[in-house]
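I keep forgetting this: the sequence line spells out the residues, with the fold written below as integer tokens. I include a record here:
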Amino acid sequence: MEAERLESSLWVGNKRYRAVLTGWHFNWTEVDKKNRDKKTISVPVAEVVGVEEGRVEILPQKVVEDTDKDFTVFYVKRSSSGGSSGLLWRLGRTQFSCPGRVLRDQWTKHLRAALKTHSPLRPHKLLVFINPFGGKKKGRAIYHSVVAPLFELAGISSHVIVTERANQARDHLLKKDLTGFDGVVCVGGDGMFSEILHGVIGRTQQEAGLCENDPAVALQPCSLHIGIIPAGSTDCVCYATVGAIDPLTSALHIVIGDSQPLDVCSVHDAAALVRYSVSMLGYGFYGDVLAESEKHRWMGPLRYDYSGTMVYLSNRSYAGVVQYLPADPLLSSPRDKTRCLSGCSVCSRSTERLFHSFSDSGSLYSSHFSEFSSDSEGDWVSVEGRFRCVSLTCMSSSCPRSPYGLSPSAHLADGTGDLILVWETNPLGFLKFLYRHTSTQDQFDLPFVEVHRVKAVRFCLPSSKEEESHGETGGGADEEERGYGAAGSRAGSQQHLADGAAGPEKPGGAFLCGLCRSAAPAASVWNCDGEILPVTEILCRVHGQLVRLYARGIEDAAALHGCSEDCDECERRCIFNK
């Protein structure tokens, strides 16, 4: 129902404004002494954070001057930042003065009514988990100084739990009563987010009576939203979905009830679910870096730089068999030079594709998962050889050090992932690949790199390597027994296979010192969103839009202000706006 229009003269300081509330927007236009319009400020009602009687200040601390003729409007303001790929959100504040109290009360009443009408998805009650040990150990301070005042302003009640052990948040979500909560907020880094992700997904499947261990099951989408307040040593998920690592920006997204669907990859071994992943699943280089860093935790965050250098110098490659189920190339491509930004049309079309058959079937994703039946084995593509790294990501995985991420054109909610295969190459070639992640150069434009948009991935060791590394009696089982079907391969992949099958690791790093050229293991480990998986052979499947975050994707300054420049940079960040 359209809110009633309200218009009157208001004062901001000693300047007169004509204020108009139309339902969807709240505008105020400066009027000069000759009643001519000057500058206009327009705020969508959906981005009004709160309305308070009197002269009120919220941040850095709450100050209230109770007056009969004044009211204060808080709203979202945007600013760009050189260190972020998206826009920073700030709390705008304007104090209005009315001729009398009656008009003041009329404005506050209408503005609050408009908020209820045009922001129905705003949370009313949130469950908040704070990791007091993550990052610089400022989680509690960030919540109480930045987040809590905004929640109070917006009328959001919260139940706060400061975690004392690993997986406490996950266990709480799996076992405790969650009635009445609209969402879950984590104040921490990627590790805390992963805990909450597993708890929310697990609880949803429990209540739906679904078995997470069945790799063919169509998982039920989660109704509880997840909010991320970045306060960890790594905040990649927040950066890739908001475009900034900024607690105030993230808190404002939560307050106004933004909703960003997110794909999730389930990782299974032969018997059960191993883990869920949303950012990166990496074998080879990325797995080795994480395993090496665990030996040097005393170094703090510097251990990642040190471990990355040591693993690079070791120049290792690993034999493996990769099978993948390609996504429809007509819908999108990992090489199409688009970016998944706020209002992405690729993700919007995917929403229609993933959900259109919901009313006609008992399973939300039944049509999406039908292709994983045994009848579709012929659609799988298989490659074998030696790899420097094998990676699967459901998002760009961008971060401050890598503004475009592992796969710049990956999408948050299109039901696919990007599989990146880096074949065995010389150290300088691999260094060029790594360096391009920090620049605007295309890291896939190298002869030893492949990228594929996929819906599922299988990985196993060649039978001989499996027996060497695991010594399991069933290590060399026939592929048909595991459901591995015969499949073809691209010509390029076959050429890599022929080159890599000639023998053991090439002596490309013979010039390196003995310390760095230590004997390489037969197999690497999987790095799953910063955690080492206990298994090597895995099956991964992408579940489209399984969870929803309090976010809206990365907002780009060029999209808001318009860009008429015909340049390579503009082409690279092709923008889809709401």
User: Anything to note?
Assistant: The CA atoms of residues 436 and 442 lie 7 Å apart. The chain has three domains: 2-120+560-571, 121-255, 264-357+379-542.
